[in-house]
Design a protein that fits this description.
Number of domains: 2
Structural class: alpha+beta
Shape: elongated
Radius of gyration: 21 Å
Number of helices: 7
Number of strands: 4
Helix content: 55-70%
Length: 159
């Protein structure tokens, strides 16, 4: 039996797209502007200038908050930027590095519905116990401790 794809509200899609586009454009603009300022200073012989704008830090904090809210793609972009020490100052790298491993877990109801869609049966038929609290959460998934109903074996369920 094919699973029904949930309908996505067009308005919410447009709002999400506009939020992402605004955030990306703002981030790119601030990065470009700071990089240009540093390059111009270096061309004048002032090699002490570094990109340390408070606006850059402000945009990156907003980027992290929005990335966590919007999900995997934005988190991965932030993780990529956090590895670019050649482009960003140390404080900025510190802000973005929070996206490396400090991800909030998905709601348990979402976990159950995803498992049931994948397994094709209710969670209670597969697991005699599935912990509500996840053991670990990262940008691409999370892990829950469970006990298989068929064997009684304790397993880790990665979602």
């Amino acid at each position: 039996m094919p699973t029904k794809t949930p309908r996505i509200n067009r308005l919410s899609q447009i709002v999400r797209f506009l939020r992402v586009a605004r955030l990306l454009l703002w981030t790119i603009w601030v990065l470009y502007r700071e990089r240009r300022r540093v390059v111009r200073a270096h061309a004048r012989g002032d090699f002490a200038v570094r990109p340390t704008s408070d606006v850059l830090l402000e945009v990156l904090v907003a980027f992290c908050e929005t990335a966590v809210e919007l999900g995997v793609l934005m988190i991965k972009l932030g993780q990529f930027l956090s590895s670019r020490v050649d482009l960003l100052p140390e404080k900025a790298i510190g802000i973005l590095s929070s996206l490396q491993d400090e991800m909030p877990p998905a709601p348990f109801e979402q976990v159950v519905s995803l498992l049931e869609a994948e397994l094709g049966k209710p969670v209670e038929e597969v697991f005699s116990m599935l912990e509500r609290k996840c053991t670990a959460a990262a940008s691409l998934g999370q892990v829950h401790k469970a006990v298989l109903a068929s064997t009684g074996e304790t397993v880790a369920v990665k979602i």
